[in-house]
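User: Before I run my own analysis I want an independent prediction to cross-check against. Here's the chain; please return only the structure tokens and, at the end, one sentence I can use as a sanity check.
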Amino acid sequence: MGKKIYEGSNWFTEKKTGRIDDDGNTYEGSNWFTEEKTGRIDDDGNIYKGSNWFTEKKTGRIDDDGNVYEGSSWFSERKVGRIDDDGNVYEGTNWFTEKKVGRQEDDDRGSGCFLSTACIEHAGLDDDCSELRTLRQFRDTFVKSLPSGDQMLEDYYRNAPGIVSNISQSDKKEYILNSIYSTIRKAVSLIRNKKNHEALSCYREMYMELVRKFG
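Assistant: Structure tokens:
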């Protein structure tokens, strides 16, 4: 699962600054529509800077204990911080001088609410807002219980990333996202009124139209 990256020493001052996707690619930006790729972290923890394989260069690594090092090789590297088991990020060469500068948390965009998360982030709402919590619970307790639920979600996982990418390049992006958000609010209202089948039909109708136009 990918990670969302926040900068700040505590929950009150922190702000989202980027993410790491499931393949280790790193991005800077507060949401899907403004972000840009800045590098990657490979399976061995090596950190690379660069937007593609041709321009990237190794700048450091993260070891198995979460210690973060800067340097292109073992001979030139130095410890600059660490990431603890809870995802808290610290700067400093040791426990006595380090200070918390941010944190990482699991990013479940690819686990069922991809389109909704991207749209709601564009609207300036938190990715843990009540609308997304409602949709995630709906996914886990209702959609997955349906005979065709797993197949619907698999189809969604496959198509949603490309849809979001294509929408982001459209000159009608604002109109499209506002329309999606309106449908999301309608679906959430139906869910909260225990009209689950109507909510699913509402969301699926929107999704299939997006597949047709942007898939």
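Sanity check: The mean pLDDT is 86.
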